[in-house]
Amino acid sequence: MAETDVSSTEKRRVSQTAVESGLAGEDDAAMLAKLGYKQELRRNFTMLEVFGIAFSIMGLLPSIASTLAYSIPAGPAGLVWGWFLASMFIFFVGLAMADLGSAMPTSGGLYWWTHFFASPKSRNALSFLVGYSNTLGLVGGLCSIDYGFSLMFLSVIVIAKDGEWAPSSGVVYAVFLACVLCHGILASSVSKSMGKLQTVFVAMNFILIFATIIALPIGRAGQRNDAKYIFATTGNLTTWPTGWAFMISWLSPIWTIGAFDSCVHMSEEAANATKAVPYGILMSIGSCWLFGWILCIVIAACMSQDLESLLGSSFGQPMAQIYYDALGKRGAIGMMTLLFIVQFLMGLSITVAASRQTWAFSRDGALPFSRYIRIINQKLGFIPFNAVWFCVILAALLGLLTLIGPAAASAVFSLAVAGNDVAWGVPILARVVWGQKKFVPGPFYTGRLSIPIAWIAIIFLCFGIVLSMFPTTGPNPTSESMNYTVVINMGVWGGALAYYYLDARKWFTGPKITLSADELTEEQERALAEEGLVIDVAGQSDMFGGDHCGPEVTAEGVKILKVIDKHTDLTFKFDEQLLGGASIDAHGIPLTDTALNAAKSADAILLGAIGGPKWGTAAVRPEQGILALRKELGTYGNLRPCFFASESLVDSSPLKAEVCRGVDFMIVRELTGGIYFGDRIEDDQGKGFAEDREPYHAFEIERVTRLAAQLALARSPPSKVWSLDKANVLATSRLWRKTFTRVMETEFPQLEFGHHLIDSAAMLMVKNPRALNGVIVTSNLFGDIISDEASVIPGSLGLLPSASLSSGIGGEGKCNGIYEPIHGSAPDISGHNAVNPVATILSVSMMLRYSFQQPELAAKVDEAVKNVIDQGVRTKDIGGTAGTKEVGDAVAEELAKLLTK
């Protein structure tokens, strides 16, 4: 998705919660908001530091040392060329992931992308599978890194004791456990400087790399192997065919260069994430490809040609033996000490990355205890403290498998390989199979090569999954040499899918929206905005195609504007754009930057209708487009008038004529605060408890009160202003009443005002709605409810307009506004020339009145509508037989007559 700017007027939204708090810059916070998430972590990682966390997790030399047992059996050529070729294919995977990471950078990117691109039928299940595979794969990576650390640490002791002592599996696990716990402590206590530490970690890695490249050849002077041995001598210490033994050697680079997705998991802590993430991925893979190949050449040049003795070294590590042969006891101890220190730093970095994926997955409610895991500890530097310790505890438990024996330990190693290969491959596959039309590139993009690169990556990842399942020693393994990866991974994947289909499918619907100040839940979004952007009008004006009935009704609105253009000095220009479902179908997102920029440059915006069952409850929904538009334009007050467009409609009301005749009030609903934007606690675990909070600030109440008062002054004669609240119970209502009263008394002393409790007002609206005539101002929640109640009074949703304004109407210059009928997209009758266009035409009237300051023209439109209704030209919903176009034509013709009198 393309980047977008954040409006400086949005005090409560992205700018306040992220920018002013120092969590993120505007562009990063806005990009994350487009994906549905509020900024909760602090962005203190630069591009170099994002590269650093991936490179330090890869821990090039320690990783090569830990996996020599997979490379050496294929001989020196297998070690050298296996590294080079596998790294080349891994780079293709990195390119494919960089495309996605630049377009949609979020900590849970892999499962988020899967859900975004996959087909509606499979997206939830696949996203769930990828999330679990990635989470457990990262924890498996932590296990294998720390297990490798324990072996390296203990190998130093073995070398120091000249091989006369061998650690038991219990001792190995004890060192492993101590290492894991240390990582938990450090990852949750030095978070504020974790980004800066990555530079130190990278430096230590390169110190170790260059020390090895220099020291080994010097130590083996006169005993080094020649080029033919290094590059052309194959071997096979397995019972597999030689070609497959060479393939097995690929496991070393596959495991080593298997941490580049950590750049994705750090997306929400990276500054300029759309560039930092892709370049971090490619720089880390490229560095390991190059320097890893050089190291493999040096190792092949300096290792003993007795490969079996090397693999069976009493030190427990082939690399320890290579150092010992070249540098002697002290040199080997020194190098192995550096090695296990760097390995320790690898474990710390992967603890950080794993915790971010775990946190992201819990943020979307997919993990057990998600309610607790997702909590951010602000005191310790805005870190997912609970997620860190969840990973640590899970790694400690998973590490118990190493007590069983080498085969189980190897299975833990392969869990990281196969688990991550699935997590990487599925979103790439989903993009090229189902979602290519939805993909909108970011700043980094491989262009026309993107699809071929993706297919190469997919094929290689499938091969890597199969490869990781094979026994490494041969086709007839013993119980000790058996590769149990297939058992563990099938357990993980099968368990995740079983969990989904037996239970999680009932509640897991993919990534959630967490924007407490920008977007609502799916139900709230549909309740607020079943409309779609269709037209942007006047001066510099833009037309947007809506969903279902949207284009039909807005075409009639345009018809009215063209009559005004023809018969007055006003000129309108229309530029068609897309919003909502139509935009999703065409561009993959509900509001493109092109459409948004067109809206920002327009004088006013007319909306039609968006949404519908076609787009379901996907992560990207039509309603997000209108909410994003409102956010970018800074609208804070929604106006919904309640009146009869013609006295002849009074008998159509469900209320008695004597009760509702003469009803004329305007509801002003505050749009940016209240319970829809407060913190919430979901009942994710089924414990029977949930919570929603209703925050309000005085400035939000002040500005919407001023808007209501200005509207009251503009009426003829000036009307009374009513405030609806629940001040007898709610603290926010008491603040509302106090603030409203202060503003009215000090700034609008000429106006009458009064208060109603919301429940009594709801009753009054049915018993005697005329008692509320004037302007009504109320909070977001109460306004949502009471305006829906009021919409029933005229007898049809097709009769009432609305407006969302971003400024008052009493100042100089234009009032920016979004104008829309209150009805939805009506998919059941759209396309049948049956939708009532009156609400849209009256929305044009509101536009003329407020944005263009043309009350006389607005009154002419109102009169034209009244006359046409009185003539009996009506749609079916109000007792007529006319179609949408016929009503629009009749109003346009009547308006032309009125304008030419």
TrEMBL record:
<feature type="transmembrane region" description="Helical">
    <location>
        <begin position="451"/>
        <end position="470"/>
    </location>
</feature>
<dbReference type="GO" id="GO:0005829">
    <property type="term" value="C:cytosol"/>
</dbReference>
<dbReference type="GO" id="GO:0003862">
    <property type="term" value="F:3-isopropylmalate dehydrogenase activity"/>
</dbReference>
<dbReference type="InterPro" id="IPR004429">
    <property type="entry name" value="Isopropylmalate_DH"/>
</dbReference>
<keyword id="KW-0472">Membrane</keyword>
<protein>
    <recommendedName>
        <fullName>3-isopropylmalate dehydrogenase</fullName>
        <ecNumber>1.1.1.85</ecNumber>
    </recommendedName>
</protein>
<dbReference type="InterPro" id="IPR019818">
    <property type="entry name" value="IsoCit/isopropylmalate_DH_CS"/>
</dbReference>
<keyword id="KW-0560">Oxidoreductase</keyword>
<dbReference type="InterPro" id="IPR002293">
    <property type="entry name" value="AA/rel_permease1"/>
</dbReference>
<comment type="pathway">
    <text>Amino-acid biosynthesis; L-leucine biosynthesis; L-leucine from 3-methyl-2-oxobutanoate: step 3/4.</text>
</comment>
<dbReference type="GO" id="GO:0022857">
    <property type="term" value="F:transmembrane transporter activity"/>
</dbReference>
<feature type="transmembrane region" description="Helical">
    <location>
        <begin position="78"/>
        <end position="98"/>
    </location>
</feature>
<keyword id="KW-0100">Branched-chain amino acid biosynthesis</keyword>
<comment type="similarity">
    <text>Belongs to the isocitrate and isopropylmalate dehydrogenases family.</text>
</comment>
<feature type="transmembrane region" description="Helical">
    <location>
        <begin position="48"/>
        <end position="72"/>
    </location>
</feature>
<feature type="transmembrane region" description="Helical">
    <location>
        <begin position="332"/>
        <end position="354"/>
    </location>
</feature>
<feature type="transmembrane region" description="Helical">
    <location>
        <begin position="136"/>
        <end position="159"/>
    </location>
</feature>
<dbReference type="GO" id="GO:0009098">
    <property type="term" value="P:L-leucine biosynthetic process"/>
</dbReference>
<feature type="transmembrane region" description="Helical">
    <location>
        <begin position="276"/>
        <end position="301"/>
    </location>
</feature>
<keyword id="KW-0479">Metal-binding</keyword>
<dbReference type="Pfam" id="PF13520">
    <property type="entry name" value="AA_permease_2"/>
</dbReference>
<feature type="transmembrane region" description="Helical">
    <location>
        <begin position="171"/>
        <end position="188"/>
    </location>
</feature>
<feature type="transmembrane region" description="Helical">
    <location>
        <begin position="200"/>
        <end position="219"/>
    </location>
</feature>
<comment type="subunit">
    <text>Homodimer.</text>
</comment>
<keyword id="KW-0520">NAD</keyword>
<feature type="domain" description="Isopropylmalate dehydrogenase-like">
    <location>
        <begin position="543"/>
        <end position="891"/>
    </location>
</feature>
<keyword id="KW-0464">Manganese</keyword>
<keyword id="KW-1133">Transmembrane helix</keyword>
<dbReference type="Pfam" id="PF00180">
    <property type="entry name" value="Iso_dh"/>
</dbReference>
<dbReference type="GO" id="GO:0051287">
    <property type="term" value="F:NAD binding"/>
</dbReference>
<dbReference type="InterPro" id="IPR024084">
    <property type="entry name" value="IsoPropMal-DH-like_dom"/>
</dbReference>
<feature type="transmembrane region" description="Helical">
    <location>
        <begin position="407"/>
        <end position="430"/>
    </location>
</feature>
<dbReference type="GO" id="GO:0000287">
    <property type="term" value="F:magnesium ion binding"/>
</dbReference>
<feature type="transmembrane region" description="Helical">
    <location>
        <begin position="380"/>
        <end position="401"/>
    </location>
</feature>
<feature type="transmembrane region" description="Helical">
    <location>
        <begin position="482"/>
        <end position="502"/>
    </location>
</feature>
<comment type="function">
    <text>Catalyzes the oxidation of 3-carboxy-2-hydroxy-4-methylpentanoate (3-isopropylmalate) to 3-carboxy-4-methyl-2-oxopentanoate. The product decarboxylates to 4-methyl-2 oxopentanoate.</text>
</comment>
<keyword id="KW-0432">Leucine biosynthesis</keyword>
<feature type="transmembrane region" description="Helical">
    <location>
        <begin position="244"/>
        <end position="264"/>
    </location>
</feature>
<keyword id="KW-0460">Magnesium</keyword>
<dbReference type="GO" id="GO:0016020">
    <property type="term" value="C:membrane"/>
</dbReference>
<keyword id="KW-0812">Transmembrane</keyword>
<keyword id="KW-0028">Amino-acid biosynthesis</keyword>
